Amino acid sequence: MKRTILALGHELLSYRIHEVTPYINWIYFFHAWGFQPRFAAIANIHGCDSCRALWLTTFPEEERTKASEAMQLFKEANRMLDRLDETISIHCIFRLCQANADGDNLLIEGTTFPLLRQQTPQPDGGPFLCLSDFVRPLSSGTPDIVGLFASTISEEAEETYKSDPYKHLLVQTLNDRLAEAATEKMHEYVRKEAWGYAPDESLSIPDLLVEKYQGIRPAVGYPSLPDQSVNFLLDELLGMKQIGITLTEHGAMHPHSSVCGMMLAHPASRYFSVGKIGEDQLDDYARRRGMPIGDMRKFLATTI
């Protein structure tokens, strides 16, 4: 890992592929190739021929061909990772910011960061949640901390094997996983050292991948943070260009294999889905975002 301290409290972490490969969640890699989660278990099997053959026998006869395909895909994916390790890197940038909640907004280093609140009654009768609920309110008079982050694959990775459709698709699906894996490793470092709110955390990687740590890391596009336009706010606060991320006019990130969002430490914080919102919240949110309601409607098409 290469660590660089930038201005305004930013930290930049650069990883080689072999450093983040253990943090890959292979379930999502196999899902991208049309395999159900049970086939991703090949990633947990010892690489010797006898172990793989034994794994195949755990499947019904009619599923063994599919399991063999998953085994071959996993083998080819690892060969590709080894091949790219010398040339491809993954970059993360994060910033720990003073922040407070002000209703459904976060006030982050002088920037208003509007958020959405659930409006659909929950099956368990629970409260209507907003991410701001997990940040100390402005009325407390005491600042809290919110972490902001972005991660991306080096741009040359997206051009690799463009003349070979299969290998190019393999690289693309691996790039997505590498960006997420680097984020997982970065978040572990933030919790234990940079922010240090969980210095004694001792979790296995399988435990990390099922989010047994304290706090949450909602990324833009997650059900609790569905508005892609907030990428512009994150860019203002983070300076994503420092790791090579640029935004389209619609807030999409380039390179495609990129992820950004926020880190919250509150012990009670949890993931949730905003779900459908009403016209009243749409109007209010557009006002808080300072955007025309027509534009806001496009960004929130899946929630209206």
UniProtKB/TrEMBL annotation:
PROSITE patterns: ADOMET_ACTIVATION. It comes from the Bacteria. The keyword Methyltransferase applies. It holds the Pfam family Met_synt_B12. Its EC number is 2.1.1.13. One of its GO terms (molecular function) is methionine synthase activity. Residues 1-304 form the AdoMet activation domain. Keywords: Methyltransferase, Transferase. GO terms for cellular component: cytosol. GO terms for biological process: methylation. This is 5-methyltetrahydrofolate--homocysteine methyltransferase. The lineage of its organism: Bacteria, Pseudomonadati, Bacteroidota, Bacteroidia, Bacteroidales.
